[in-house]
Amino acid sequence: MYVLIGGAGLVGLTLAQKLVELGHTVAVIDIDPNACRYVREQVGAMAFEGSAVSTEVLLEAGIRKADSLAAVLRNDALNLAMVTLAKHYGVSHILTRLRHPDFAPPLRLAGATHIISTVELGVSTMVNAIEYPQVESMMHFEQGQIEVLKLPIPNNCYVVGRSVAEIAQDSRFPTGSLIIGYQPHPQENLMIPNGSTVLEPGSTVLIVTKPGSLHQVIDFFEGCK
Asked: What is the β-pairing status of strands 2-6 and 68-71?
């Protein structure tokens, strides 16, 4: 996949590094020649010096062949301009960083397929870590209508030794929740469980649920025998 990134700040550089590690072809555009040099020498991606909202630079960077584009420039107005140009040149998958919520509607109208608020994401992550310290990680989908949480299973937990099917049929297990992932041990890969998968002590589960059921899910899995 050919990915074009506008901006070689911390977010842009980190994104480029991860994508290169995953085997994608990455090109970064930035006005800073030192940042471009770093991209080439340390990240292993292509770099084009100039404005990411310049049609000339975008064409040189190969925007017409880009499968995805990420606009992570220093302000929302520049990101909006880059998203607009990406849509004009036919990029089908356009991501952008959002700083101020007022820019969200214009970015959608311009053609952004994914809008990521780094501030909102960071605050939400910290709130979850404070409110649910026992949860290893949590992700939100569909504007917060669905939650996916990664929850460790205590050794003396009520669900230890029970199958996924038994847990799903338990009246105390919140309706609309589902175990979608299971990791028997930290050194093992996450797997997709079936009804006969038995939860072991010290294992970890991935659960999808509704926001209103979060406390119920956590209480259920932390219940002692």
From this structure: parallel
Cα distances from 5 to residues 23, 97, 142, 188, in angstroms, run 15, 11, 25, 34
Pairing outcome for strands 93-98 and 114-117 = parallel
Report the C-alpha gap between 116 and 139 in whole angstroms: 13
Q: Which helix (H) or strand (E) is 27 found in, with range?
A: strand 25-30
pLDDT of residue 140: 66
| Better-scored residue on pLDDT, 224 or 20 | 20
**pLDDT at residue number 144:** 62
How many other β-carbons are positioned within 10 Å of the β-carbon of residue 171? 5
Lowest average pLDDT, out of 49-63, 85-99, 188-202, goes to: 188-202
Q: How far, rounded to the nearest angstrom, does the alpha carbon of residue 14 sit from its chain's CA centroid?
A: 13
Phi, psi of 222 (to 5 degrees): -95, -5
Each residue of 69-101: pLDDT tens digit? 999 999 999 999 999 999 999 999 999 999 998
Describe the chain by its helix, strand, coil percentages, rounded to 5: 40, 25, 35
Q: How far apart are CA 16 and CA 3, in angstroms?
A: 9
Amino acid at 140: H
* Structure-block tokens of residue 214: 């979060």
Q: Measured on CA atoms in the order 177, 183, 184, 185, is the torsion positive or negative?
A: negative
